[in-house]
Amino acid sequence: MKPRGILHLYRIRLRARFAQQLFAAIGIAAGVALLFAAQVANTSLNGSVHQLTSGLVGSSQLQLAARDPNGFDESLLASVRLLPGVSSAAPILESQANVIGPKGERRSVDFIGADPRFVTLGGTLLRHFSAAALARQHAIALPAPIATSVNAGALEPISIQIGESTERVLLGIVLQEAQIGALVHSPVALAPLQYAQQLAGMRGRITRIFVRAAPDRRGAVESELRRLAGAHINVEPANFDARLFDSAAMPTNQSTTVFALISALVGFILAFDAILLTVPAQRRLVADLKFDGYSPRTIVEVMLVDALILGVASCLLGLFLGDELSLRLFHASPGYLSFAFPVGSQRIVTWQAVALAVFGGLVAACAGVLGPVREDIFSHKPLSARRGRSQRMSLRWLPLGGVACILATTLVLVFAPRDALVGIATLTLALLLLLPALIRGVVAAVPLLTVNVRARGGPSIAVSELRSAWTRTVGIAATGAIAVFGSVAIQGAHADLQRGLDGSARDISRAANVWAFPPGLNNLLATTPFRPTALPRLARLSGIRVSLYRGGFLDFEDRRVWVSAPPVSQRELIPPHQLVEGNLALANQRVRAGGWAVISKAIAAEHGLSIGDSFVLPAPRPTSFRVAALSTNIGWPPGAIIINADDYAKAWGSNDASAYEFTTAPGSGPSVAAGEVRRILAATSSGLIVHTARERERRQRAASRQGLSQLSRISILVLIAAVLAMAAAIGSMIWQRRSRLASLKLDGFSDLDVWRALLLETLLLVGSGCAIGALFGLYGQVLGSHTILSVTGFPVVFSLGIGGAIESFALVTLVAVAITALPGYVAARVEPAANLVD
Known about the structure:
It is a single chain. This protein is 58% helix and 15% strand. Strands 12, 13, 14, 15, 16, 17, 18, 19, 20 and 21 form a ten-stranded mixed sheet that branches. A hairpin with a 2-residue loop joins strand 6 and strand 7 (165-175). The longest helix is centred in the C-terminal third of the chain and has 44 residues, at 693-736.
């Protein structure tokens, strides 16, 4: 058949089934939109850090990096430049800081000091900065969004706080997107190197040296750099920070992708349901084409035109909707990752994200159009014989396949919980394979349960209608089942994780009654060091005991781990609910004595460590510790290590503190103690903030919820998509059955009888599917929670979200029934007739 004839045939068929094609397009578009939005969120999250790293490192290949914020002596730069094979080297100073606007608005930034040597070596960000007149002035530069957020303009005085010190500075340049591209969305502040050293109180100190090696000399240069660095400075690839961030962001990206795939599946099932409404017409078309002598290949070409037009139109709509979702609902910057990385707010759309979403949409369209009629195209047997044989095969093998998939899911849960995608796939497949048998059981039970029901004909009509279009019945029920399954699994695992993180925040914060530490959203874990000059005055406070807490981030292989070092005077050095293996009392005793550490189970597994084993902590002064116990990651994705504050001071070679801890006497209120501490710190001109344990816990909980917010949004979108999917499909199905409903009127059924039967049919169809999905969703929650614990090491509080399952089941069922009530009522008022032409 010629292309013109195929297109003409398509236009004729489209006019007859426009509503069904529209529903199918909406379903595929919903799936494409969710897939695309999730991918954009993930690539934006990682891409922002990759872009900033590239903007810093430029053409350099290697770096020497300090192991702590105090850096190393910049005299090392001269030695690096003299190494054979080094074509250029440039220094940099980085510090966590807060920019404070004229009216007090505050933003956390990565404060970067560089010099003109980055003109030829550095990336876009530093090349522009170093070439500017700012390099010769005592002023800083801010990207435009940061400047706007603190309400400051060029040549205005602002303040910058590093540690507990706050200095007045001049905002010399506001960098625009035309100057530094997408890096304008990165949370950075730039200053000349010497001026940055002055502001940070680090004269003669730097934190990195970026190095470019001559062609074919990289290996030799790296060896020489390691010789110079010794055991106190790291030698890494120039873009090493981006690799560390990929590791830290992996749990967020994995969970978002897995649950977005579940959401996309709901949309694709909607499309399949809509296409099922056109199957009788498609089968008649196939039969007519075969009768006219067309080959199976030609028939496939005709059907592929349907699929491609549907798929392309749906993908275009889906990409548009996904773009809106990524702008308004899916945000790329979970708060907790900004504790150790400068995560930007830029939105990055890659061709891979577009390709994956489009591929999924086209596959769904082709499967939906060709799947139901594939046997009609290639088989030479009569339709009735094929249908009977296929039904017998389904009845025999589908339940067995479903049971096998449940067993496979159980094996994944017990022996390989890290393989979340495999477990979710087998559990989803089990749901779809068992669903027809379970729905058949529900339909068979209705007449038995409604023997004494007086509603005239209602149950019998509903059961008869469900059985008359069995494939369509199962398809619509599958939509609700998958949606509720996904929602319950997502929300349940999310709730388990959130309870675990809340417990972690409570354990950390309530180690002391009152805390004082440098402000900033990037310092909620108290990792910014400062000199504890106010300690003598604070120690004189009556009824309040003060101790020094120390902590910071440390690059340990491919992880940026959090090292927490509470004072030995603290009653419990180890958060009590975070222990995974070991004895809590013995572990506390050992860590307090010194030379022992509690490490996250994920770190222990990566390094092959068990309780009692020794390892070397790669601190500025490498120190050997023994493993006292294994813990969760205490809320920090790459993992945590707990030592005491005295061991930390020795290993870091510094008496700087990260926070003051205050323990009040029994009966003394934390708020009163916090007020006393604020008074002393204000008198010493300290820039530290003071929080009670409850205030600090509340802020940490808010940060963790920001990081998990995408899971909540995805689960809500799943339910919305499911409700619309089933309402549209059932409404269309009811409207197409007006001729059958009209014939019921001839049997003496009233409008109310028919409408009541339609509502019961909808309730049975949607309710049974959603109930089955809720049960499978509870199993999905167990799998998801164990996967989170195994893959990420996050603290997880296991529970069974029965309440959430009931809520999701009731919400989807009742809303879908309510939405379809109106078209059902209109269809029920059709005039009595033996054969009504639609």
